[in-house]
Structures are given as structure tokens and as C-alpha cells.
Design brief:
By secondary structure, the chain is an alpha/beta fold. Helix 3 (104-115) packs across helix 4 (119-132) and helix 3 (104-115) packs parallel to helix 5. Helices cover 36% and strands 28% of the residues.
Length: 229
């Protein structure tokens, strides 16, 4: 079997809140192979978003190790970590994290620009992905001129336009109606099945879980259940 895209070993994350330690993750072991579509579920406070952030290098574990595509994140400084995220990982955040002064099209092109993709190719790929998400008429609008659901779709477009090795999604269906959620999940499934993009999604949404081929449930910072099929 090929090297896993994600390898987490003994990862714990402890925060301090009002001088009291909070164990967000407790000695988590997780391996995600290339091409998997994994959902992380569990009640609020179960640790799923913390695990997603640790995998993505947005947060560092208090103890344990995290490797992406064979690279141990623990060994990287902040600049090296940012470079790995740029080239290996696509992110979809619940809060969108769009750049307010840029148009939808410019937001989608932004990561490609950082990667050094040429202007003509950036424009074509951005137009294609916006059209596939039903946003072809929204390209010139800034985030403040879009609905929550439209902003979420732009965020998804930005994350997947570079076809990263790993896509991390935190509540990807937030603010989307069931029809748009279905269209989004169909697109993610195509990327997963035909292009081999590995997807890990933290979600409360049963519809997102139903599309995942592997479903992991967390509780109190630990993996409670891990099933496939």
C-alpha cells in the first residue's frame, strides 16, 4: 500500500482555559490512505475541528506527531509549514475566510497566484470551477455582496481549484440548502473518485457523512468509532 496522506500518532492537544487544562485531543492515532473520503463526526467539543486543524498544520499538537504525504509537520518551522499547506492542502472553513476586498473570481485565483500559475490558466480554471458550482454570474462580486451559501461555494471553489492532494473541510455544508449541498458533495465525490483527491471533512450533517466512504466518530477527544462502507 502506498504511503498514507495523513498519519497521526499519539496526538494530544491541551488548552488552558481559566487556568484549567482542557483536553481537546487525547492520544489520537489516525491513518488516512490516498484517495479516501473520510468524515469526522461527533458532538460539539468532541475534538473533530481540533483534529482537522492539527492535520492541516493550523494547530500543533501538545504531544504526538502528524505527517502529511510523508512529511512530519513537527519538524517544520512556520514558513515551511505554510509552504506545505500552499502546495498540498486545500481548506474549506465554516467561516469562509474569503478576502473581503477581492471579488469571488479573485478569491478563487488567489491560491493559484501564490503557486505561480500563469494569469491565463488561473482565469480559465477559476471560470470553470465557478461555473461548476453555479456561480458563473457571481465572479465579479465581493464576499459582502454574496449570500452565506454563495460565499461557502466560493470558499469550496478556492479550495479545490488547485486539486490538492488533501482537502480538509470544516462543516462544508454549513449555510447551504439541501440541493446545493447535494451538488457540492457530487463535485467532491467526482474529485475523490476520478482524480484521487483525499478528503477529510468534519461535519454534523448526515448527508455529508453518507457520501464519505469512511466515517469516524469522536467523543471527548478520542476516536470512538471508525467504520467503512
Amino acid at each position: 500500500m502506498s504511503n498514507p496522506v495523513v498519519e497521526v500518532r499519539g496526538a494530544s492537544r491541551v488548552y488552558t482555559e481559566d487556568a484549567v487544562p482542557v483536553h481537546a485531543l487525547r492520544d489520537v492515532d489516525l491513518t488516512v490512505q490516498r484517495g479516501e473520503f473520510v468524515s469526522l463526526a461527533g458532538p460539539s467539543g468532541s475534538g473533530k475541528s481540533t483534529l482537522l486543524n492539527v492535520i492541516g498544520g493550523l494547530d500543533r499538537p501538545t504531544s504526538g506527531t502528524v505527517s502529511i504525504d510523508g512529511v512530519c509537520l513537527n519538524d517544520l518551522n512556520d514558513t515551511e509549514l505554510a509552504d506545505l499547506r500552499l502546495h498540498k492542502i486545500g481548506f474549506v472553513f465554516q467561516s469562509y475566510n474569503l478576502i473581503p476586498v477581492l471579488s469571488a473570481r479573485e478569491n478563487v485565483e488567489f491560491i493559484m497566484q501564490l503557486q505561480g500559475v500563469g494569469a491565463a490558466e488561473r482565469a480559465q480554471r477559476a471560470a470553470d470551477i465557478l461555473q461548476s458550482l453555479g456561480l458563473e454570474t457571481m465572479g465579479d462580486r465581493r464576499p459582502g455582496e454574496l449570500s452565506g451559501g454563495q460565499q461557502q461555494r466560493v470558499a469550496v471553489a478556492r479550495a479545490i481549484v488547485t486539486e490538492p492532494a488533501l482537502l480538509l473541510a470544516d462543516e462544508p455544508s454549513a449555510n447551504l440548502d439541501s440541493t446545493t449541498t447535494g451538488e457540492l458533495l457530487d463535485l467532491l465525490r467526482v474529485l475523490n473518485e476520478t482524480r484521487g483527491v483525499t478528503i477529510v471533512a468534519a461535519t454534523h450533517d448526515p448527508m455529508v457523512m453518507s457520501y464519505a466512504k469512511r466515517r469516524i466518530t469522536l467523543r471527548d477527544g478520542r476516536i470512538e468509532n471508525d467504520s467503512t462502507g
